[in-house]
Structures are given as structure tokens and as C-alpha cells.
Amino acid sequence: MDTLISLVECEGGAWNICRDSVALYGQLRLGPAITLARQLARDEHGRTGRDVSVVLTGLQDGIRLAHYGTEHAAA
User: Fold this and answer.
1) What band does 67 get if pLDDT is binned at 50, 70 and 90?
2) What is the phi-psi region of residue 71: left when phi exceeds 0, alpha when psi lies from -120 to 50, beta otherwise?
3) Surface-to-core class of residue 6, CB atoms within 10 Å of its CB (0-12 exposed, 13-18 middle, 19+ buried)
């Protein structure tokens, strides 16, 4: 199962970094939040070997910003 690290916008334009549904960091500007989320994902992939994705959430499905691990072949 893939681990998901998501960037979730909160009030005032700040961003939270969440792992699955648990908030890890909050009230960050978008640029530093992206940098930190990618670092967390790389570290987790390095420690566990599991696939880890970083996703920017929004009104639609979300935008995958990074993926560490095996890419799944499109069917």
C-alpha cells in the first residue's frame, strides 16, 4: 500500500502537511511546505522501501508533485 503525504490548504492561505489523514506540520507557506513534504517522502521511502507520493490537494483530484518508489504500469 502506498503512503500518501498531502498538502492541504487551511484558512488564511497557509498549508498543512498530512501523512495519510494525520497532520504532521501546519501553517506553512506553500513553497516550504512542498520542499518539506518531498523531503519527508524521500526519507520514508528510503527507510521503508514503500512507495510514497506527495499530493497537492484542491478542488479536483489533486496534483501529484512527487512519487518515490515503483511506478505502476498503466493498464
Assistant:
1) confident
2) beta
3) buried
